[in-house]
Amino acid sequence: MRTELCDKLGIEYPIIGFTPSEHVAAAISKAGGLGVLGCVRFNDAGELDTVLDWMDANTGGKPYGVDIVMPAKIPAEGTQVDLDKLIPEEHKAFVERTLRELGVPELPEDTVERAGVLGWLHSVARSHVEVALKHPIKLIANALGSPPVDVIEQAHSHGVPVAALAGKAEHARRHVDNGVDFVVAQGYEAGGHTGEIGSMVLLPEIVDAVGAPVLAAGGIGSGRQVAAALALGAAGAWTGSIWLGTEEYLRTMPSSEAMQRALVAATSADTVRTRIYTGKPARLLKTRWTEAWAQPGAPEPLPMPLQNLLVSHAHNRLHEANDPGLVSMPAGQIIGRIDRIRPVAEIFAELLAGYDEALERLEKSR
Amino acid sequence: MRTELCDKLGIEYPIIGFTPSEHVAAAISKAGGLGVLGCVRFNDAGELDTVLDWMDANTGGKPYGVDIVMPAKIPAEGTQVDLDKLIPEEHKAFVERTLRELGVPELPEDTVERAGVLGWLHSVARSHVEVALKHPIKLIANALGSPPVDVIEQAHSHGVPVAALAGKAEHARRHVDNGVDFVVAQGYEAGGHTGEIGSMVLLPEIVDAVGAPVLAAGGIGSGRQVAAALALGAAGAWTGSIWLGTEEYLRTMPSSEAMQRALVAATSADTVRTRIYTGKPARLLKTRWTEAWAQPGAPEPLPMPLQNLLVSHAHNRLHEANDPGLVSMPAGQIIGRIDRIRPVAEIFAELLAGYDEALERLEKSR
């Protein structure tokens, strides 16, 4: 399995693996793909710096990248305290009532709470870029489209290419006009922020719309799906959700056992596209928490970044509840394929073998 | 392009084309695929008989099939007059008000109105099967899952295999348990009745769930997409929406010019999955009519078959309005690819050429 992407990124196989876990990212890079570390969890850029030091020491010199979350439109800026004032009381009351009705326990009194995600404030995302460019990264991807032109130029001045997610051909065209090097065509099936056009339709549309290489995202978790993505014209595959079901993920986030149990139990029908996580449409694991927000009478989610601040305390309580039915987690439809927790290398080897099998099958059909 | 499906159906290429137009169906069969004629438009089985006589005379002896719409659960039966009584006044008032607000003209006084679609009543669908089995059909497909076991047995006793649409792996398994010969895995992208799981995820899931050959539906309109479908494990492609943009379609439905103009103008983002057409979720072209039903305050659509009876008069008026912005038409996301009205044979030739190109590209990546 080899495309132009391999030469451009210095990787063996055209498989990119997005993950918030440095242990997963390193394992993907060591397997011959490109591990891309999600930065949005680092409210403090110093923390990211430490983790990238760990990456530098643990990827055996193999290339890796980072993923930032920089919205095209600059959202409300400010400290968590300032922003909290913009959240309506009705919304706070709904969250409190819902947690009570779902039987989610209060946090123990001595808990030091994890703050809400601020990584999608431009100020914080820019600090991620600053820090990342001090490390030997091979890619900066932006999960919310094209970063500002000056950020792209900053990356290019360090010789680092930039990738941007797109859910429509017109967005992809705009990204490339801004100087983006790779477009990640993210289909409806994908976890996290995603649009409404399915991968089967979106991918060739974006391939035809832009001259830049296109990575296929959304619904990819097997070698057959990588083959389909390449048949549709992609230069490589962008994978994400399948890496949530790995041993390495649990090493970074040891308290994610309930989430992994939920993934193993879930079918491809057990996700939902909703604005309740960040304020923008994102696909999440369907749980009693997401269902509560879909009931008549539930408030409309707030815009980014307020919605996540609204639910950040709830996320902490849901996480502590340690109940697979109450997990709040971005995940794509491919999670229906996760039937046990495995090492990254095993999944990666299956992607390669499945790809070869698919191509052999196709060749027989000519 | 050749798979086991070709031998099973006696066709040259594993491409099935669903269409309500006999002219399109005949052209697909003559091009080497299998044209499948949608029967739901025939409230009178005698009309279907006449059209199938025409097919027998105009397919040059090439195989063709028919598509019926038989819900798994038997819907309310009755004449149109009986059923009309079950429709709430609130709904009738909304339809009337919406047509007025959209500026849709009344029908001329001497119009003989086309009745609502009754083809999905079991009684009518059974009459379609009776009539179709008197013709040399090679396939009966059911757009709403497995037909009743006795209908499958009736088809088999005439040597005719049965295909059934599925939007989930568990449904596919049930269809095959009932005796269905082929499963049509219909992804979220598809036009008409469709589920929520994208083709990229759904297709390999259904392939692995059943032993029967699987046809890929949803988002297929180019050879690259046929190659992707086969890479994902399909034995063939089930196409539909792309044939709406053909010269042959206009020959059967000469008053569909506004619809075709709407298709040519539409992008892949211009469809919506809604219950307003039949009562079950179906993907339609997004127009001012579908948008009106998405407004706050619009009533919830009624169950099948009442919803279509509710809107059948509106459909006639919308059709007569001859305005691309007011069309009511099932269509999949692939319509973004329709950029002009062409002959069936030209589209078919492109499917074959695009497939070969995709395979050549893939072979280079090994």
Oligomer: homodimer
Output the strand order for the largest sheet of chain A. Answer: 1-2-3-4-5-6-8-9
Could you give the count of β-strands of chain A? 11
CATH superfamily of the largest domain in chain A, called what? Answer: Aldolase class I
The tally of helices of chain A reads 15
When the domains of chain A are counted, the total is 2
Mean of pLDDT of chain A = 95
Strand-pairing-aware structural class of chain A: alpha/beta
**Biggest contact:** A-B, 47 and 47 residues
- Here the CATH topology of the largest domain in chain A equals TIM Barrel
Order of helices and strands of chain A: HEHEHEHHHEHEHEEHEHEHHEEHHH
Q: Rg of chain A, please?
A: 20 Å
The low-confidence parts of chain A are: none
The major beta sheet of chain A can be summarized as: 8 strands, parallel, barrel
State the end-to-end CA separation of chain A: 20 Å
- CATH class call of the largest domain in chain A: Alpha Beta
Measured as a percent range, the helix fraction of chain A is 40-55%
Q: Per the principal axes of the C-alpha atoms, what is the gross shape of chain A?
A: globular
CATH architecture of the largest domain in chain A: Alpha-Beta Barrel
- Percentage of β-strand residues of chain A: 5-15%
Provide a quick synopsis of the model.
Two copies of one chain form a homodimer. The first copy, chain A, has 366 residues and is an alpha/beta fold.
